[in-house]
Structure formats: C-alpha cells, structure tokens
C-alpha cells in the first residue's frame, strides 16, 4: 500500500442491520394502514439524471418493497412520492422545481401524502435552503451519501409528522447489502465505484458525489453472480470514472483486472461499462476489452471539446491529438468497435476556431453517436467564474451545426450495417407492438424485429433490413 493512499471502508453491519429493523417497523405500520384503508400503500419514484441515479432509485425501490409499499405509475395514486434529482445542468434543476411546485395541490387534497426529495441536487446547501423556504409541502430531504438511511428517515417522518432534513458530506464509505429491486431482469446496472476526483472545471459532480470510492471485488462479484442466477444476461458497470477503479482499495486490482474477473461469471453473456475518462484509458484496459469475449464492442469516451486550449481550461488533462491517438489505438485493437461520446458546446471562452476544432474531432473520430450539451453554468465550479461566458444564441447555433454533422456521420455508419447479420440480446416487446421485439447489438444499437416470446433473454441473429433514425429494423434468419 502506497503512502497516503485513502482506503474506502464499508458502513458497519450493525448500521445496516438497524436500517433493516426500520424497514420491518414500517412494514408493520403499513400492514395496519393497508387493512384499515382496504387498498395497498403505493409509491412512485421519479428519477432525473444519469444511470447512477437510476441505480440508486432501484435501491430505494428495494427498501420500499420491503416496507410493504407497491409501486404505481401515477402521482395521484401515491402515498409516497420520491424525486431523485440531478444538478449536472441548470435545466435538470429547473425541471425538478417545476414538478415540486405541482405537488403542492396534491398534498392539499391528500394530507397523508409523504413527499421525499433526494439525489445530487440536495448536496447543495442553497438548494436545501430554497426547498425549506419555498416548498414547505416537502417532508423528507436527504442526499447521495446517506441513501441507505432512508428507512430511518421515513420512519422519523411517519412518527413525528414533521419535516426531516438530513444531508451528509462524503463519508469515504460504502453501504453494502441493502435491498435492491431492479426495473429489468435481463439487463442490470452494477455500480462499481462512487464519486469522482477529476474536477473538470465545468462539472458539479465531484462536489455532490464526493471522492472516488470503489466497491470490493468480492461484493461486485457476489452481486453479478446473484444476477446471473436470477437470469440476468447483460451487466453495465457504472462509475463516473471507471478507469480509476481500485485505486482506493487494498491490493492492486485495476478496472482491467475487474473486467477479466467478471468475464468469468457463468450465465452473464455481455459486459458493458461507463464512463471512461480518456486521460487514464490504459493499454491494459484496451487489451482486457480485446481479450474478454463478454465485454462488448462499445466504448463511451467523452471528448467534451476539440480544442486543446479549451480541453486544458476544462481540466481534462489530454489534448486533441492525444484523444485522436487513443481512438486509433482502440479501433486498431478492437475492430468494429462502436464509439460514443459527450460534447459540451459553448464552454466559456470558446471561439469560432475552438468550435471548429470540435467539428474536426467529430469528423475524424467518426462517433456512432454523441450526447451533446449546451454549456451550463454551475455555481461553485471554476468555469462559472470565467467572465467570457458565451451568449445563448451563439451556443445554440454551434449546437445545431454540431448536431447536423454528427447526425450525418451516425447515418453513414448505420447505413453500413444494412444487410449485415448482427447478434441481438432480445429484451422484450417493443413499446407499441404485440409482435415486434426489441434488443441491442453488442455495439449497443437498438434493433427491432418480428419475434416470439421464447426469444426474450436470448441472443439471436438479426439481418438488418432498414435504417431508422434511432433504431435498426431487421429480420430473424431462420
Ligand atoms: N463522468 C462522466 C459523466 C458526467 S456527467 C464523464 O466524465 O464523462 C455527463 C456529461 O454531462 C458530461 O460528460 C458532460 O458532457 C456533461 N456536463 C457536465 N457538466 C456540464 C455542464 N456544466 N454543462 C453542460 N454539460 C455538462
Ligand atoms: Fe464531471 Fe469530469 Fe468527473 Fe465526469 S470526470 S463526473 S465530467 S468532473
Ligand atoms: Fe446528475 Fe448526479 Fe448523475 S448530478 S448526472 S445524477 S451523478
């Protein structure tokens, strides 16, 4: 162990057991309520933001089902409403405030309704103050670091009938063995690390999610083996910066090593992961992707900008040339790999020439898809203090130009798939159909095709016959 290495710890078993006791207490209370009102007690969780939040919401669902709550799909039918929030961009926050305002009426008609709000937004002091002042109908406020304490907080809210606010700063530990109730059976999110140490100058995530904390190999492997036993075929390993996995653990396990370990789990057919940071995408990881047959041919590698000057100001710690070099290396080691990326348009100080560099990277890298964002000022981040903010109209024009180029490239890449036979993991019926099934290729492309119920959860070969904007249409070869 190197000097000064910070080691991630686990929340004590005793503390976890305590939460299970609260789950049981609430369950008994709910049984009383259910028999007196003659119908189930119901909850709805509305999740904003990234897959980490989706996974956290699955944990909340697990706790709630243990407490005897049933999930429902309408706010008006709910006895408990939870908003799991995101603050990565301003519009994400505005959305939450809009929804929160709309709950006031509901609470007036149903005073027993409990409203809880959690997630990244709550890790900002001014947000909590604003909610306290403006949205008095909120009953429970908690953050990302004490999610596992939700049973206790809910119990306090139920017994005291007063507002409960509990938000922690990062603790450096991880809560294991709490219940989880997943949305899907065939695919599952598996969080392998929490937090981020990168401090990109525009980004709020390190402030609201705390420092990097890795889960132990043992815990991750147990979870994945259990998933496989329950019929799961595909896992997506989650972390803000998965390449740093293991740096805070005893021993020398890396993310590449983790992939090699999980590749051995029987029953799992596919492994994906996100997100990788280009600055530490190691050769070791590229070789692990190449060697592990379950690791899919897809890499999400956010570039954020094309100009080396802007990348430097973003504190990304790579240049345009280094990024393009990295992509070449990935493509030559893993033929046919699909690349996706994130791009921010209108970072403070971005000139027309800088933006043209972004277009140049997009043209050269030939991403399968890009998630594009208008730069959004986040209070507390260094970039927010930069006086050279870009006017909205300029940002929007650049955004449209970027989209036009990327859409053209995406279409060209997808057109190249016409007539090809691709392996698809069948997920189920597509939304509005009784005979069309949907699934994804190893490259993460959505494919729709005529199928049958017995195909769900299986790998099938589909011949691509038509290219649509967001998906491919194909036919099963019999
Ligand atoms: N850890 C991941 C993803 C973090 S958030 C990564 O490093 O890629 C997802 C994306 O949101 C980022 O990749 C970035 O493109 C975008 N983003 C983050 N902060 C932003 C901001 N202030 N304005 C606009 N987009 C932002
Ligand atoms: Fe934000 Fe950068 Fe961390 Fe991603 S790597 S979460 S963009 S600070
Ligand atoms: Fe948003 Fe938090 Fe994810 S800020 S993007 S939900 S880590």
Written description of the protein model:
The chain is 37% helix and 21% strand. The chain has 478 residues and is an alpha/beta fold. It folds into three domains: 165 residues, Rossmann fold (3-Layer(aba) Sandwich), CATH 3.40.50; 234 residues, tm_1862 like domain (pyruvate-formate lyase- activating enzyme, Alpha-Beta Horseshoe), CATH 3.80.30.20; 56 residues, OB fold (Dihydrolipoamide Acetyltransferase, E2P) (Beta Barrel), CATH 2.40.50. Helix 1 crosses helix 5. The model has no long low-confidence stretch (mean pLDDT 96). The site of iron/sulfur cluster (SF4) has 10 residues, from helix 6. This is tRNA-2-methylthio-N(6)-dimethylallyladenosine synthase. Monomer.
**In the residues, how many domains can be counted?**
3
Oligomer: single chain
Main beta sheet: 6 strands, parallel
Q: How many helix segments? A: 13
* Principal-axes shape call: globular
Strand content of the residues, in percent?
15-25%
| Total number of strands | 21
The rounded Rg comes to 23 Å
In percent, how helical is the residue content? Answer: 25-40%
- Which architecture of the largest domain does the CATH hierarchy give at level 2? Alpha-Beta Horseshoe
The CATH class of the largest domain is Alpha Beta
- The fold-level CATH name of the largest domain is pyruvate-formate lyase- activating enzyme
Please state the structural category.
alpha/beta
Name the bound molecules. S-adenosyl-L-homocysteine, iron/sulfur cluster, FE3-S4 cluster
Arrangement of strands in the largest sheet: 3-2-4-5-6-7
CATH superfamily of the largest domain, please? tm_1862 like domain
* Average pLDDT taken over every residue: 96
Extract low-pLDDT stretches: none
First CA to last CA: what distance?
A: 56 Å
